[in-house]
């Protein structure tokens, strides 16, 4: 009898085995070396095998993030409190080096059901032209400081609402392409990439391309002090009649996970034709356990006057400011390679590290060819509505150890010229997360 095995089944079995192996490896520590001192096996923080000359290596890691949200008011359709619990991310990551100058990364997400494609990254890189690295494949574009930081180590549970103004900037679903990046002179990081756009094709079936660039200047990079500045630019061409709308969760993921009563309001939109571009600026300063950072984003897209029935383009802008303090005295770590903050390592293995923070987000859709959600309830049209939102987030993070992080956030939001179906223009939410990293 011949038995048939599906490719999907084989891959699922492999992923499960690799995940179990990596998680079990977390329980051990130390380094094992062969007789010839050729191979080193590291089991602290995942599983890594590599040669001592660093010509070859293989690492398995990942993250599990279990979330729960409770929200009301504008965050819901009818204004009544709703709640949602879900597996935000269950990601398996495989990376390594081959023949010294070649590297690879594969990242597959088994949670986050809101995306249509769960391959976060699948890329091959050449590192032989130091300090320049060239990568091809599926790559996450990077626009903005919070987007540069891994979801494992962002301060708030969800990133700022300003990224909802132009979700194409950091979309891994449109991420097939090529990227150049470099870190040099101990204070500069730069990257630029061209990425295929999914669903934006011309009449011949050719995909348009998105270009994203980011430059970072960090004149101070020390263990307990960092000064960081960054600029971002992105542009894409869109075909006539390409439809785009600006919807925001206002940093509460449960609003889209809850398909019954969750409200992800439409702040504006348009059918586009021509150039869609965005600019961004970022700055951060860290001194010991204290840090402050902020970002600004503005977007302008050419509207299709014929398809829209009006001459309105699509214009939006937003900014955020965040302050954080580690009560137990630890500093946030920072990586110039990538221009980003990283984990907080607890100095007390029993107490862990405790961090508190506050973030303010402000987004505005200045001009739109499509009226905001339920603007008719306010007697508004696209000619008079200028939808905006202001969100306050306070939270606490407990870094139990280098693998476990527990987070709790409280959010309060208010909106202008946009309401839910019940007429609410404000809302509250509580978000919780338990995270395990290996």
From TrEMBL:
Q: Name one Pfam family in it.
A: Porin_O_P
Q: TM spans, by residue?
A: none
Highest rank taxon of the organism:
Bacteria
For this UniProt record, the keywords arranged alphabetically read as follows:
Signal
The family database entries (InterPro entries) matched by this protein are listed as:
Porin_dom_sf, Porin_O/P
Residues in the signal sequence: 1-29
Task: From the Swiss-Prot or TrEMBL record, give the protein name.
Answer: Porin
Specify the species. Pseudomonas spirodelae
């Amino acid at each position: 009898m011949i038995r048939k095995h599906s490719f999907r089944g084989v891959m699922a079995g492999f992923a499960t085995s690799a995940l179990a192996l990596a998680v079990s490896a977390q329980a051990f520590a130390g380094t094992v070396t062969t007789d010839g001192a050729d191979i080193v096996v590291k089991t602290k923080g995942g599983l890594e095998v590599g040669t001592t000359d660093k010509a070859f290596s293989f690492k398995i890691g990942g993250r599990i993030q279990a979330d729960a949200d409770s929200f009301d008011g504008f965050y819901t359709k009818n204004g009544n409190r709703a709640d949602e619990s879900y597996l935000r991310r269950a990601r398996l990551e495989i990376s390594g080096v081959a023949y010294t100058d070649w590297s690879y990364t594969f990242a597959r997400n088994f949670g986050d059901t809101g995306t249509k494609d769960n391959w976060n990254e699948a890329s091959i890189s050449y590192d032989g032209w130091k300090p320049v690295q060239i990568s091809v494949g599926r790559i996450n574009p990077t626009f903005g400081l919070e987007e540069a930081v891994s979801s494992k180590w962002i301060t708030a549970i969800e990133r700022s609402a300003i990224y909802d103004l132009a979700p194409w900037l950091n979309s891994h679903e449109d991420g097939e392409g090529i990227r150049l990046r470099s870190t040099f002179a101990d204070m500069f990081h730069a990257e630029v990439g061209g990425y295929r756009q999914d669903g934006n094709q011309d009449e011949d079936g050719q995909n348009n391309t998105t270009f994203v660039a980011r430059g970072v200047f960090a004149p101070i990079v020390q263990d307990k002090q960092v000064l960081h500045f960054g600029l971002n630019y992105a542009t894409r061409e869109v075909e006539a009649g390409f439809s785009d709308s600006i919807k925001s969760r206002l940093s509460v993921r449960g609003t889209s996970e809850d398909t019954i009563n969750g409200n992800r309001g439409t702040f504006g939109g348009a059918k586009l034709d021509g150039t869609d571009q965005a600019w961004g600026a970022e700055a951060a300063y860290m001194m010991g356990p204290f840090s402050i950072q902020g970002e600004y984003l503005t977007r302008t897209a050419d509207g299709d006057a014929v398809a829209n029935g009006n001459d309105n383009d699509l214009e939006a802008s937003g900014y955020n400011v965040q302050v954080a303090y580690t009560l137990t005295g630890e500093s946030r770590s920072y990586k110039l390679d990538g221009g980003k903050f990283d984990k907080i390592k607890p100095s007390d293995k029993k107490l862990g590290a405790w961090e508190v923070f506050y973030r303010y987000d402000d987004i505005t859709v200045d001009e739109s060819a499509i009226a905001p959600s339920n603007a008719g309830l306010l007697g508004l049209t696209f000619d008079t509505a200028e939808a905006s939102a202001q969100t306050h987030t306070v939270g606490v993070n407990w870094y139990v150890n280098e693998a476990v992080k527990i987070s709790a956030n409280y959010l309060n939001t208010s909106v202008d010229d946009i309401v839910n179906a019940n007429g609410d223009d404000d809302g509250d939410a509580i978000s919780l997360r338990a995270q395990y990293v290996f």
